[in-house]
Specification:
The structure holds 2 protein chains of 2 kinds.
Chain A (H helix, E strand, L loop, with lengths): L48 H26 L13 H10 L5 E3 L5 H6 L9 H4 L8 H4 L11 H14 L6 E6 L6 H13 L3 E7 L2 E2 L2 E2 L12 H5 L3 E5 L3 H16 L5 E6 L18 H9 L2 H11 L5 H23 L19 H17 L14
Parallel strand pairs in A: 1-2, 2-3, 3-7, 6-7
Antiparallel strand pairs in A: 4-5
Helix pairs in contact in A: 1-2, 1-11, 1-12, 2-9, 6-7
Chain B lengths: L15 E4 H15 L3 E5 L15 H5 L4 E3 L4 H13 L3 E5 L10 H8 L2 H4 L9 E6 L14 H5 L5 E3 L4 H13 L4 E6 L6 E4 L14 E4 L4 E5 L4 H11 L6 E5 L2 E3 L3 H11 L2 E8 L4 H13 L8 E5 L10 H4 L3 H10 L2 H4 L1
Parallel strand pairs in B: 2-3, 2-4, 4-5, 5-7, 6-7, 10-11, 10-13, 13-14
Antiparallel strand pairs in B: 1-8, 6-12, 9-11
Helix pairs in contact in B: 1-7, 3-4, 8-12, 9-10
Classes of the chains: A alpha/beta, B alpha/beta.
């Protein structure tokens, strides 16, 4: 006996449910299946030659910075350096899109983005040298502290952009995160908040293939990381992260959109981390040379160099000049990093609270006593023979 | 409290019965009226006025931009508040219930508590995190935790908890005005406690970081805070029948901790019991007892005792009365303070 055959069932008429309609049409939010490219395509003809030359100079400088900083870890001058070699186009082109009043929220690998925004190369490294957590004033540069926990800086970017809009300022926040960071809860909460609040934020995921050793396929089952955008009600965009001109254009459009008050965008830049995660990592355990070599062919500097030389905008002399400028930056960085920073141990207590608590005052006195004892004249000078 | 009482209106100046929840709401309202950078955000704080009605009327008076119903996500709420504070606002965040704050712990511990320190003072975060805490209201699982020990263990946070209607108003105004982040613990079961209170003339409010003696006495000190203060005051009254004249210290602020007021009291009385409803092991009482012992060892006539909740996950509501330290358990501890006679 089926339900229809039950006595009285024929009389049942279901009440129509309350009207349902989707909140947003998903189609315009979906990313194109192919990452957007400019270099080596017809679109390159529209690119501003001056911009391309600037991008090239910055990319070469950025690569030299990565190489120098990595060398400094081997010399023990840096505790650690997460190199962004191979990812310079994402770092630099994205930062160059921002206006001075905008804010950058970098992750720990985004030192180059901060430097491209004008931060002093040494100030950008103090976290990794180990003398200060943040060697610069975030408000002065409008760069949040390099963020070590994954994706936790993304809600900050949302809150800041939201606050700026409430105050009537047309400020945009650019929040950077890696492919691994997209699995964190804070990534989800930040994107959701940004979309609901229509906050002027641009989320840039640098998909460099690995979260330390874990490949993207073990990180997500989504068609792409850009596809995640549609679930939040914001547009998702895929871009070739090694194509500086494409990154600049896609980021530029998203920033302009945010500034117009049309809300956030999620951009996935497809790139590759050429070096290991940090100097403490052995990348040969989880990936083969062939894969790395294939990406070497698609190097961001090489791509741009080919475009510029092919169009007669750059010659051997121009390349040499750019390299020389980068070399001088590296020399200066090396020199400054070889000088030991002067640190005051009493600073440990200086910035925990606006005013020291009684407990911190006691502990500061204790340390002051220990320091004084360390610097006491040796016992010989007090007439005591030898030091115990 | 020069910042308080900034707006005119229907005030009479006469003291009328008010609940702690009303005083907290009034503090939020007055802070928002006095300073346009104060923003309230959280789940249900707008149209509903909060599940405890503490934020009632704020969205109507100040608009959705100043009192904002957020998506349901505690890490997102607190994380957004960090960004708002970075841009010069003073966010007041509501974590609807104690245990609902746990998803926001990473934001609290890795960012809220540390931002001043990691930017060498360049970027303090004036965020107030309101957390209704503790049991005794018949709440089901995850609605009655006492999480103060977790907050206390995190340098960079102030941890404050009022026990009176006056303090609810005054401490919340102080917390919002502070340039440091404050975890503001609201004892849920005192939300409906009443006092004659005038919003025009809040009673003398001590700043954050000072404990106050709520009852003077000579024979022992009860050290307590928040929801356990009324328990201790009642126990102190009951103890007079046994010849005990108990002093009751209300800490008000767990961080910073007022060593001076506490030690001065214990030196006078020579005996001390710490009373709180969160679990004893690894709880605030251990820290407090150790601090008192270090400072008052030669004045002590007996070990510092603790009366705390059991070391169990918060029990189901039909069993919570066995877990929460009540008057009898406090009196038992006081009786054990006759150390010399017993040992």
């Amino acid at each position: 006996m089926t339900v229809q055959e039950l006595p009285g069932a024929a009389a049942y008429r279901p009440t129509p449910p309350p009207a349902w309609k989707p909140l947003t049409d998903p189609a315009p939010l979906l990313p194109d299946p192919e990452p957007y490219r400019v270099l080596g395509t017809d679109a390159a003809a529209d690119a501003d030659p001056e911009l391309l030359l600037r991008l090239y100079a910055e990319l070469v400088r950025g690569r030299r910075y990565n190489v120098q900083a990595t060398a400094l870890t081997k010399q023990g001058r840096l505790a650690v350096y997460p190199s962004s070699t191979g990812q310079e186009a994402c770092e630099i082109a994205a930062a160059m899109v921002l206006e001075e009043r905008d804010w950058l929220f970098p992750s720990y690998r985004d030192t180059l983005a901060a430097v491209a925004r004008g931060l002093d190369p040494v100030e950008a490294l103090t976290l990794l040298r180990g003398d200060r957590h943040t060697g610069y004033d975030p408000r002065e540069h409008r760069i949040a502290p390099l963020c070590t926990p994954l994706a936790t800086q993304l809600p900050h970017a949302v809150g800041l952009a939201h606050a700026a809009r409430l105050k009537g300022d047309d400020v945009v926040a650019l929040a950077m995160v890696g492919d691994g960071g997209t699995s964190e809860g804070d990534f989800h909460e930040a994107l959701n908040f940004a979309a609901v609040w229509r906050a002027p934020v641009v989320f840039l995921v640098q998909n460099n293939g690995f979260a330390i050793s874990v490949p993207l396929a073990k990180q997500t089952a989504a068609p792409s990381l850009a596809h995640k955008a549609v679930g939040y009600g914001m547009p998702g965009r895929l871009v070739d992260g090694n194509d500086a001109a494409a990154v600049h254009q896609v980021l530029g459009e998203a920033v302009a959109r945010a500034r117009r008050g049309e809300g956030p965008t999620l951009i996935e830049a497809v790139t590759y981390r050429m070096d290991a995660h940090t100097n403490a990592d052995d990348a040969t355990r989880y990936r083969g040379d062939a894969e790395v070599e294939a990406w070497r062919e698609h190097d961001p500097i090489r791509l741009l160099e080919r475009e510029l030389t092919g169009r007669g905008l750059l010659d051997e002399e121009g390349i040499a000049t750019v390299r020389e400028t980068a070399e001088r930056m590296a020399e200066s960085l090396r020199e400054q990093m070889n000088a030991d920073p002067v640190l005051d141990p009493m600073d440990l207590f200086a910035h925990v609270y606006e005013e020291r608590t009684g407990q911190l005052r006691e502990q500061a006195e204790m340390l002051r006593g220990e320091l004084a004892a360390e610097h006491d004249p040796p016992l010989e000078e007090n007439g005591v023979e030898g030091r115990r | 409290m020069s910042t308080a009482a900034a707006t005119a209106g229907e005030r009479t100046g006469r003291a009328k019965p008010a609940t702690m929840a009303q005083a907290l709401g009034r503090a939020l309202r007055d802070a928002m009226a006095a300073d346009p950078s104060v923003h309230v955000l959280g789940e249900d704080v707008g149209t509903l006025g909060g599940v405890f009605r503490v934020t009632d009327g704020l969205a109507k008076e100040f608009g959705d931009d100043r009192c904002t119903d957020t998506p349901l996500a505690e890490a997102g709420i607190l994380g957004a508040a960090v960004g708002m504070a970075m841009y010069g606002l003073r966010p007041v965040v509501e974590m609807q219930f104690d245990a609902f704050a746990y998803p926001a712990f990473e934001q609290l511990i890795s960012h809220v508590a540390k931002m001043r320190n990691r930017t060498a003072g360049a970027m303090p975060l004036p965020i107030t995190v309101r957390v209704p805490y503790g049991g005794g209201i018949g709440g089901v699982e995850h609605h009655s935790d006492s999480s103060e020990a977790y907050y206390m263990a995190t340098p960079g946070l102030h941890v404050v908890t009022p026990a009176t209607v006056d303090d609810a108003y005054g401490l919340l105004r102080e917390s919002i005005a502070s340039d440091d982040p404050v975890v503001f613990l609201e004892p849920k079961r005192l939300y409906w406690s009443k006092a004659d209170w005038s919003p025009d003339a809040p009673a003398q409010v001590e700043p954050i970081g000072r404990a106050v003696v709520r009852r003077t006495g000579r024979s022992a000190t009860l050290i307590t805070y928040g929801p356990s203060l009324p328990v201790c005051l009642e126990a102190a009254e009951a103890a007079t029948a046994e010849g005990w004249d108990l002093e009751v210290v209300d800490l008000r602020s767990l961080v910073p901790f007022d060593d001076e007021t506490v030690a001065a009291s214990v030196r006078r009385t020579g005996r001390a019991v710490v009373v709180h409803e969160s679990s004893g092991f690894g709880g605030p009482g251990g820290e407090i007892a150790a601090r008192v012992t270090e400072r008052c060892f030669h004045h002590l006539e007996a070990p510092v005792l603790r009366v705390a909740g059991f070391d169990i996950p918060y029990p189901p509501p039909m069993q919570e009365r066995h877990h929460l330290p009540g008057v009898d358990r406090v009196l038992d501890a006081v009786a054990r303070l006759q150390w010399e006679a017993d040992s």
